[in-house]
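Data card: per-record layout.
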Amino acid sequence: MSNSAWPAQAMIGRGQVRHRRLMPSAHAFAYRSYFLMLPMRSLRHTPCPALHRPSAEGKAAGWSWLSFHDADHGDGGPDCLAWLDDLLQREGVHEATGEVWLHCYPRVLGHAFKPVSFWHCHRPDGSLAAIVVEVNNTFGERHCYLLHGPTLAYGRELLATKAFHVSPFCRVSGRYRFRFMHSSGPQGMRCVARVDHDDELGQALLQTSVSGELQALTQTSARRAFFDMPAQSLMVLARIHWQALRLFLKRVPFFGKPAAPETLVTR
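The structure for this 267-residue chain is written out next.
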């Protein structure tokens, strides 16, 4: 469904990150997590009082437990929405002039590590025009997968060839299968992002998801999320390395890091 029924306000999601490896050794985990869901075009005109965000000149708008920095996305510049619009125009996606919802992790106490962020780009009528999946690895590299075309829709499986190194326990080969689901109703608002990885033979290798219940981002909801998990950014990095150690002890094959893709975007 379209998320045009959502209120055009910054939201915070609280839920779980799940990861399941099927080969060559079974391995699974799930962690509690929280994330931001930001209507980027609306925030350009009406900033959220609870979202502390430096200005284009780099001046911080106060202090908060959680914050958002444009420089954590795209080309690292002061206006990540402008970067996104430029990317879409270069790639021939001209109709994404409606709301852009960014699903991402916040900075926590000024520290950020964002393994993956999802840009949901809509047409003026609220229909989905494109999704940009922005991936960061622990080597400080970034790559984007642009999902666009007649098969694009919420709840539908979307495919992309894997082109970027993320884990030393997976080759840069095979394909990703994405599925995004949004809902709004009497039970509240919820979103789910699933990213599964098939190997070069088409066999399911990894199944991952990020999901959560959404509520308005306020000083109260931000404070509650922070005190529920006060070091989330550091915990994400620590958990990545802890799970890597567990895979190493299970003797899962290790692959060296290849060169990063020459282009930022895989279409």
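Known properties of this structure: The mean pLDDT is 89. The radius of gyration is 18 Å.

See the next section for split statistics.
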